[in-house]
Amino acid sequence: MIKDYLKITFRTLANQKFYTGLNIVGLSIGIASCLLILLYVHHELSYDTFHEKAERVYRVGLNGKIAEQEIFTTSSCPPLAFTAVEEFPEVENATRIFPYWAQQIIRYGETAIFEEKVYFADSSFFDVFGFKLLEGNPATALVEPNTVVIPEDVAQKYFGEESAFGKTILIGAEKVPHKVTGVLDKLPPNTHLHFDMLRSMVSWPNHKDQVWLNNNLVTYLLLHEGASPASLEEKFVSMVIKYVGPEVQQFMGISLETFAQQGNKYGFFLQPLLDIHLHSDLKDELEPNGDITYVYIFGAIAFFIILLACINFMNLATARSANRAKEVGVRKTLGSLRSTLVWQFITESVVLSLIATLLALGATALLLSPFNDISGKEISAALFGKPWFIMALSGLMLTVGVIAGSYPAFYLSSFRPVEVLKGRLKAGMKSSGIRNVLVVFQFFISITLIICTILVYEQLEYTRTKNLGFEKENVVVIEGMWPLSRGQQNTLKQALIDQSQVINASISNNVPPGVNNTTVFRKKGTEDDILISTYNVDYDHLATMKIELLDGRNFSRDFPTDTTAILLNQAAVKAFGLTQAVNETLEFFGGDNGRQDFKIVGVFKDFNYETLKNEISPLALFLTRQGGLMSVRVRGENMPATLAMMEEAWKKHTPGEPFQYHFLDESYDALFRAEQRLGKVFSIFTGLAILVACLGLLGLAAFMAEQRTKEIGIRKVLGASIPGVILLLSKDFTKLVIFAFVLAIPVAYIIVDKWLEGFAFHIEIGPGTFVVAGIMALLIAWLTVSWQSIKAAAANPVRSLRSE
User: Fold this and answer.
1) Reduced to 3 states, what is the DSSP secondary structure of residue 680?
2) For residues 544 and 505, is the Cβ–Cβ distance under 8 A?
3) Which residue of 137, 442, 454, 561 has the fewest C-beta atoms within 10 A of its own C-beta?
């Protein structure tokens, strides 16, 4: 029986090469797209699942509120981790990470490289996390001061094929010798915790800091089996009262109770390790995370692309049912049961699905590498050999085959042989109601995706080109300035300014968008606390960045007292409720000297020093004469020669130190790199969805032209023109596309409007985008149909009518 099914199947497919090809190509594209998206979704959902104790690991976050400003951050204080171990029975172990946010220079022999992520970690790190050591003892690797653990791929940069274990490297501007006490396997891509090196926490001078209000590291807790995280979070309240309360009283002069009565709050919460990548977007994340919303979106796109491919199959099968009606009638007359016919048609569908799946699997393997480049992921083809993947692929193939073939199977097998053989079903076969509904649905999905893609592109372009309140273009930021003395830094700065290619230069300890230090200020004589971001700059920072000064003056060498002066942005002035900010005095809670007074000498215009997802928040600038960065504004002409000049000046004044730099505008672009990549992926799959829909439309257009061959011949004999015939064949599809467009408008608007809520600064959704999308959809439909329409209209009517 199966042999007969297959024989008839291959015979039928061979006799209908055009429609078979359309179905196979459509299903192949749909399945390949679905496979790529499934691999992407699996990769996103697999973050940190490789840790043996992942389900019991939680990150401690800080949730505070000061002067109506909400604080949600990954940062916590040094004493929290082991206080939790000692005082709460739910906690089995804890570890801390201090993410040294600045680059650090690493030296070994003649090799000197800036590393981005050199973190400090407690010796308990490997008790909590499941990273594997290739060399070294995980229990002792980070116990001693001045020890370091290095991933294998990083070690190869310094030691080549030699073993790094036991070697000594020099870290930082101070060239502190560190012994390599562990070599890690290469870090997996699916972790939120990537680092270049781990230094022992005891090497960090502040690792025993007991100040609870000093939040500067990341804390992870390992809970006992069966422990309740909710119960532990409730106990955090008493911990805050016990330890944070006295410090609020000491530093701010009010009790914790009064602090809360003023509308403020301060507390800790737990985040499951497995939720961090897709469900966390806190301040001071170790690296940009994913977003569960995008996982849902891509999952939906995969579903719709497969659905579109199945709709194509059903559309073409039902459309061509008239050509197989007599076959069904004859076979029923000869004794075939309806169940036999159903299985025959489903077999044809499953065979088509199998062929398409094999082609899709090959296409997925070929496209995986470029897909990784576009998406910024490291999805492995090794998944193809996993049992779950093979089962999922087989299930997908059968599901697509059965769904795509089910309606045609039951529809065709329901024909009554007497009616078919008398030709009474011919008119019914031309009934296009269900096909029209499916075509509308296809273009509804396609147009919705087109509108969303256009609006996503417009938002990403807006973030790239928006005026941030200062000029980020043509600013080169030289890194690694800390090894230079104050005199060396100023000499280098002057040497660069003397060059014709350089407009200005500024030394600072930070530059936007990497401002990550916040502290509490209070207007002198009041008890209103304001949380403000800060960084230190020299006299030329505003001029170099082209930040507009609105009131007062800039820092000046003519005022020695400017060491206790401060510049505020408009948002900070507004937060303090000041009408005249200049000459007001603020109390600063931070630094080594505790509470200090700073005089406001100037107010500068708000600028976006963070991501455009956030409103511009209060910012204060302190004066410094030495920093780790130098921002150099250049003319932008012949940039390679300018960079070569800067490197030459660097080597002249800082012999032996590597020249490291980045462009300021590229740092801002990096903030939205994840969205930009997702936008590209979204565009690609939108294009594939449209292609699948067009393949179905092409098949239907070919069928309609075939069915109306004699009608077209008669019209041409009676004087119809080719454009008139083309219009005749195209107008029905045009109506369907317009109807789908009307349905797609509100759905696309709601989807994109919800997405834009995540941006404090975003585009306004205007009618122009919808008009463009509608025109694009019509053009796509017309171009798809036109080939078959022109072919039918240009045919010689004698050929179609000679049998009459």
Assistant:
1) helix
2) yes
3) 561
CA nearest to 325, candidates 428, 431, 420, 407? 420
284: left (phi over 0), alpha (psi -120 to 50) or beta: left
| H/E stretch holding 324 | helix 321-333
Sign of CA pseudo-dihedral 785, 790, 796, 797: positive
DSSP 238-279: HHIIIIIHHHHHHHHSS-HHHHHHTT-EEEEEEEEGGGHHHH
**SS3 label, residue 178:** strand
Asked if residue 362 is part of any domain, the answer here is no
Task: Give the domain range for residue 756.
Answer: 291-334+382-462+673-801
In a domain, 608, yes or no: yes
pLDDT value for 413: 65
| Residue entry with tokens 């932008």 | 636
| Low-confidence residues in the chain, pLDDT < 50 | 426-431, 804
The 10s digit of each residue's pLDDT in 275-302 is: 999 999 888 888 888 889 889 988 888 8
Supply the pLDDT for residue 725.
67
Q: pLDDT per residue over 688-704, tens digit each?
A: 888 888 877 777 666 66
Same domain, 411 and 483: no
Cβ neighbours of 164 (radius 10 Å): 25
Q: Mark whether 435 and 571 lie in a shared domain.
A: no
Are the CB atoms for 125 and 198 separated by under 8 Å?
yes
Q: Tell whether 495 and 404 lie within a shared domain.
A: no
Do 603 and 697 belong to one domain? no
Q: 763-780 pLDDT, tens per residue?
A: 999 888 898 888 888 888
The amino acid occupying position 588 is F
Q: Does residue 611 belong to any structural domain of this protein? A: yes
pLDDT at 355: 86
Domain C-terminal end among 258, 279, 300: 279
Among all chains, which residue has been given the structure tokens 């740092």? Answer: 667
Res 429: pLDDT = 42
The answer to whether residues 630 and 689 belong to one domain is: no
Q: What is the pLDDT of residue 791?
A: 63
Strand partners, 604: 549, 569
Does some domain include residue 458?
yes
User: pLDDT of 454-487, one tens digit each?
Assistant: 898 888 888 888 888 999 999 999 988 887 888 8
Same domain, 168 and 304: no
Number of domains in the chain: 3
Report residue 364 CA to chain centroid gap.
Answer: 21
Angle at 618 (CA atoms; ends 617, 623), nearest 5 degrees: 135
State pTM to two decimals. Answer: 0.83
* CA nearest neighbour of 167 among 156, 181, 157: 181
Q: Using an 8 Å Cβ cutoff, are 541 and 587 in contact? A: no
The answer to whether residues 748 and 610 belong to one domain is no
Largest CA distance in the chain: 108
Q: Hunting for tokens 């709601």 — which residue is that?
A: 750
Give the Cα separation of 185 and 134 in Å (integer): 6
Check if the beta carbon of residue 706 is closer than 8 Å to that of residue 738.
no
* N-terminal to C-terminal alpha carbon distance within the chain: 41
Q: Are residues 225 and 186 in the same domain?
A: yes
Amino acid identity, residue 257?
E
Tell me which of 671, 699, 725 is where a domain ends.
671
Tokens coding 522: 């209070």
Q: How far is CA 441 from the centre of its chain?
A: 29
Degrees, nearest 5: CA angle 112-538-627: 25
Q: Look at residue 263 in the predicted model and tell me its pLDDT.
A: 84
Closest by Cα among 221, 255, 246 to 235: 221
CA-based nearest residue to 185, from 121, 125, 136: 136
The pLDDT score that the predictor gives to residue 781 is: 80
3-state secondary structure 341-403: HHHHHHHHHHHHHHHHHHHHHHHHHHHHHHHHHHHCCCCCHHHHHCHHHHHHHHHHHHHHHHH
Provide the CB-side half-sphere exposure for 523 (13 A, CA). Answer: 17
Position 448, amino acid: T
Tokens of 728: 């005749």
